[in-house]
Amino acid sequence: MGGVRTDQERLTLASRFMQAGMFAVVLGAFVTESYTWLPAAVVSLLVTETPAILRRNLKIVLPVELNFFIVLALFLHVIGGVYGFYDYISWWDHLTHAMSASLVAALGFVLVVSIDWYVDSIYLPRPFVAFFVIMFTMAVGVLWELMEWLIDELTGSFLQYSLEDSMLDMLFDSFAGFVVAAATTHYVGKHTTPGRLVESLQIGEARDRIKGIIENRKARKGQSD
Amino acid sequence: MIPSDRRTILEAEASWIASLVLFFATVYVTVKMDIPWMAFGISAISLYILPILSMRNPFRALPWEMTLLLAAPLLLHISEGSQTLMENVGWWRDVTSIAFAFSLTTIGFLLTVELHMYTPVRMNRPFAVFFVVMFTLAVSGFWQLGQWIDQLLYGSNLLPSNEVAMKNLLWTLIVGVPMAFVYDLYMRAMSKRRMESLGFIHLWEVYGRTRKG
User: Fold this and answer.
1) Which of A116, A206, B61, B96 could be disulfide-bonded to A124 (CB atoms 3.0-4.6 Å)?
2) What is the model's pTM?
3) pLDDT above 50: residue B212
4) Chain B 127-186, residues with CB within 8 Å of chain A CB atoms
C-alpha cells in the first residue's frame, strides 16, 4: 500500500513540475515579448487546474494517473510549440495527437462506465464498453478534423496541410482508441471493478451536490416570488 | 411460419428483393477485390441475415426501406453511369456521399437494434440516439482511412484530395445527426404489428438487467 502511495505522489509531483514549466512559458512570453504561444499556455494551465476545481467544488476525484496524463499531453503541446518541435521534429505532431486522442479515449471510458453505473435503464457489458471507447475516440477525432478543415475554409488559415496529414491524424486517433480500450479493459478486469472505479470518482456524490444546488436555487426562487 | 395477413408477406417480399440487390452488388465488389466496399457489403448483409438465421424464419427480414438504404451507396459505387457523372457533374460526388451517410446511419441503427435483440446490452433513448450519431461519425472516419490505405497500397483513386475526405465526413455529420433522431421517431411510429413481426420488441425497453443484475 505504501508503494502505491509514493507512486501516486511521484506522479503528482511530476504534474506540478510540468505545470511550473507551463507557467515559466507564460512568464517567458512576457519577458521575450513573443506572444504566439501565450494563449495556448494560459489555456493549458487553466485546463490542468480543472481537476482540482472539480475536486474542491463537486468532490469529483479523477484518478491520479488520468490527471498526470492530462498535464503531460498539454505540457508536450505547449513545449513543442515554444521550442518549435512542431516544425523541426516530423513526428511531434503525431505524438501530441496520439496523446490527446488517448486522453479523449480515457475520458470516454470514464463517461461510459459512469453512465452504465448510474443510469438504471442502461446496461453495457465490458466488450461493448471497449467498443464504445474506440468509436468515441474516432468520432471525436472526426469532429476535430472537420473543425480544422472548416476553420481553414472560413478563415483561410493553414491547420491541415494535406490529405496525408489529416489521414495520419485519424490513424493515430484510432490507434489511441484501440490501445486505451485494451488497457482500460485489462485494468478494470485486473485491478478494480467498474463499481469501485466509479465510486472512487465520486460522481454520485457530485450528482447529489448538483441536485442540491438546483433545489436550493428553486427554493430561493420560490421565496422571492 | 407463414404470416396470415397479406401486408406482412408483401413487405417481406419487398425486403427479399432489396436484399438480392445488396447481395449481388456485394458479390460484384468481392469479385473485383474492392476491399473497403467488400467489408461494407458483408457487414450490411450480416446485419440483414442475422435475424433470419437466428429465428429460422425468412419473414423476420428487415424492413425493405432500410435494406434499400443499405444497398444504395454500393449500387452508386459500382455503377458506371455514376462514375461518369462524378467526373462530369460537380455535385454528383456529394450525392454519393449523402447516400453513403444514410447507409451508415442505417447500419448504426440496425446494430443498436440487433445488440438489443441478441446481447444483454440495454440502452435508453437518449443514449441510443447518441450512440447512433457517434457510430456514424466514427465509421465514416474509419472508412476514409480504409479508402486512403487502399489507395496507398493499390493505387486506386478513391480519395483524390483532402477536400473530398472532409466533405465525406461533413455529409456524415449533416445526415447522421438528424437521421439518428428520425430513427427514434421511426421506432415510435412503427405499428405494433410490424414491430412484432420483425422481433423489434425489446428495443429500448428494460427487462430486468440493470446495474445490480
Assistant:
1) A116
2) 0.83
3) no
4) 127, 131, 133-135, 137-142, 144-145, 148, 159, 161-162, 165-166, 169-170, 172-173
